[in-house]
């Protein structure tokens, strides 16, 4: 409602039963909102730049979201608030003040973003019920690490906390998921106490981050680790191998890969992403953990050669996936590991084409793999777009992954398709029996008509002409009735056959 300028409410308590209110993209709206909303449970105000009012009094509210509406004022927070999401300098400052002054016993999720001013976040004032904390685009936000918060399970920090070169997780001992991205000033992640519940850690585009040394020893349950766009991290400096880790996602970087085999003995799933102009072949011999069962290579645009020697020791490797490696065109060595049961090549047109054509330099090295999946349609246009606009490479990868997942679903349904054909056979057999019954019935009717006609002809000579006419008329009527019955049965048969074909078509469509 781009032209809406004022909310006029004639009554003081105009909406006593209103439970949800969303005001979205009303740039001209100004003035006040209804002040009393006793039944309101959820309020969302987004992109209302001119709106300057206080948040309505709603004692029963459980969800409050304000974004792109910098003049909206937040007073006292409702005690039943469960979800709070605030964007903007003034809102963040007022919310931080309100949190310290209000006893919020139900707050489960807190998200603050878009604050350019210096803000102190006292850990000791966080409601004890809080489980998820998200901080986005708050460059000058600073944590006051006083005490511990035992209920927080998920922490996400993006493009924030530039004033803190060293970030400590000691105040959140029960974290289950940590995501830190684009914190360019962060140099180290400090953990001096055990994080026994942390299975997932992702750090992305933190160019200055160098140290994760204490993280391995303090997180004995860490199973999934992602390190993307962090070229300064050196895993070789880590003392003990991290044996609980199962899934590792890293950018292509020699510092990271050279220590992967020695530091991650138990890793079964490895994903290597990102562009690197210097690498022409991979992987190097001895780099990858011998326990790998799945290996993905994504968006490594400079690589031209896949080295069999670097994969030869992977005796448990079952799946190799290659996505958007646009210049990859050859496989060097004898052949890929014998343990492989699936090879996926998508968005890599040079190698994909050679595999499709069974090129003698490539095909003998992969022909032993039971399932080889090549996605070559629309690859050329995708490569062109990704080359011209590097920012859409991940979108291309996502599209490819979705197509791959669809194919996997199709492959999982052969038993269902087999069952469909069995059902078709049963139906056809049943309909065939009905056709046989109809033929027998027609034969009996024909015999009856012929017998009646013979009787009429034998008796015709002894009867008067009118009686002969009567018998012939009677026989013709019976014959017409029989013909009508046969026609109706034939039409029913046609409908049944059409229904069979329709059912089969539906079953096959569902299976595919």
TrEMBL record:
<keyword id="KW-0472">Membrane</keyword>
<feature type="transmembrane region" description="Helical">
    <location>
        <begin position="470"/>
        <end position="489"/>
    </location>
</feature>
<dbReference type="GO" id="GO:0016020">
    <property type="term" value="C:membrane"/>
</dbReference>
<dbReference type="InterPro" id="IPR000727">
    <property type="entry name" value="T_SNARE_dom"/>
</dbReference>
<keyword id="KW-0653">Protein transport</keyword>
<keyword id="KW-0175">Coiled coil</keyword>
<comment type="similarity">
    <text>Belongs to the syntaxin family.</text>
</comment>
<keyword id="KW-0007">Acetylation</keyword>
<dbReference type="GO" id="GO:0015031">
    <property type="term" value="P:protein transport"/>
</dbReference>
<keyword id="KW-0813">Transport</keyword>
<dbReference type="InterPro" id="IPR010989">
    <property type="entry name" value="SNARE"/>
</dbReference>
<protein>
    <recommendedName>
        <fullName>t-SNARE coiled-coil homology domain-containing protein</fullName>
    </recommendedName>
</protein>
<feature type="domain" description="T-SNARE coiled-coil homology">
    <location>
        <begin position="397"/>
        <end position="449"/>
    </location>
</feature>
<keyword id="KW-1133">Transmembrane helix</keyword>
<keyword id="KW-0812">Transmembrane</keyword>
<dbReference type="GO" id="GO:0016192">
    <property type="term" value="P:vesicle-mediated transport"/>
</dbReference>
<dbReference type="InterPro" id="IPR032675">
    <property type="entry name" value="LRR_dom_sf"/>
</dbReference>
């Amino acid at each position: 409602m781009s032209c809406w300028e004022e909310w006029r409410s004639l009554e003081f308590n105009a909406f006593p039963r209103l439970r949800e209110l969303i005001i979205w993209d009303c740039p001209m709206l100004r003035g006040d909102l209804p002040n009393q909303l006793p039944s309101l449970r959820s309020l969302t105000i987004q992109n209302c730049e001119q709106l300057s009012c206080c948040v309505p009094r709603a004692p029963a509210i459980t969800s409050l979201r304000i974004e792109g509406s910098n003049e909206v004022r937040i007073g006292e927070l409702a005690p039943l608030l469960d979800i709070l999401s605030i964007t903007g300098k003034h809102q963040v400052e007022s919310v931080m003040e309100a949190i310290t002054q209000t006893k919020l016993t139900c707050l489960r999720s807190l998200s603050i973003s878009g604050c350019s001013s210096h803000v102190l976040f006292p850990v000791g004032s966080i409601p004890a019920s809080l489980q998820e904390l998200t901080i986005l685009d708050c460059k000058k936000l600073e944590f006051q690490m006083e005490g511990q918060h035992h209920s927080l399970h998920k922490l996400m920090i993006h493009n924030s906390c530039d004033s803190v070169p060293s970030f400590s997780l000691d105040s959140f001992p029960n974290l289950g998921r940590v995501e830190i991205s684009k914190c360019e000033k962060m140099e180290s992640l400090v953990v001096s106490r055990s994080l026994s519940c942390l299975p997932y850690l992702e750090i992305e585009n933190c160019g200055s981050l160098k140290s994760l040394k204490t993280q391995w020893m303090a997180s004995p349950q860490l199973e999934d680790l992602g390190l993307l766009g962090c070229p300064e991290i050196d895993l070789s400096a880590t003392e003990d191998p991290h044996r609980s880790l199962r899934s590792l996602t890293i950018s292509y970087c020699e510092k990271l890969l050279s220590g992967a085999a020695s530091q991650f003995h138990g890793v079964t799933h490895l994903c290597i992403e990102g562009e690197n102009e210097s690498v022409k072949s991979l992987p190097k011999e001895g780099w990858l953990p011998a326990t790998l069962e799945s290996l993905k290579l994504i968006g490594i645009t400079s690589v031209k050669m896949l080295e069999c020697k670097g994969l030869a020791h992977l005796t448990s490797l079952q799946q190799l996936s290659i996505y958007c490696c646009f210049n990859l065109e050859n496989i060097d060595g004898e052949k890929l590991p014998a343990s492989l049961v699936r090879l996926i090549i998508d968005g890599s047109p040079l190698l994909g084409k050679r595999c499709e054509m069974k090129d003698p330099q490539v095909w003998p090295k992969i022909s032993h793999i039971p399932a080889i999946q090549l996605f070559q349609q629309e690859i050329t246009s995708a490569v062109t777009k990704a080359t011209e606009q590097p920012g859409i490479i991940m979108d291309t990868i996502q599209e490819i992954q979705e197509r791959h997942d669809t194919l996997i679903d199709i492959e999982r349904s052969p038993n269902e398709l087999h069952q469909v054909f069995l059902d078709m056979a049963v139906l056809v057999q049943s309909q065939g029996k009905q056709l046989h019954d109809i033929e027998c019935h027609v034969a009996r009717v024909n015999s009856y008509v012929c017998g009646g006609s013979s009787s009429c002809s034998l008796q015709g000579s002894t009867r008067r002409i009118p009686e002969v006419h009567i018998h012939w008329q009677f026989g013709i009527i019976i014959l017409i009735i029989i013909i009508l019955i046969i026609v109706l049965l034939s039409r029913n048969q046609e409908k049944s056959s059409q229904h069979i074909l329709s059912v089969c078509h539906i079953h096959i469509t569902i299976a595919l």
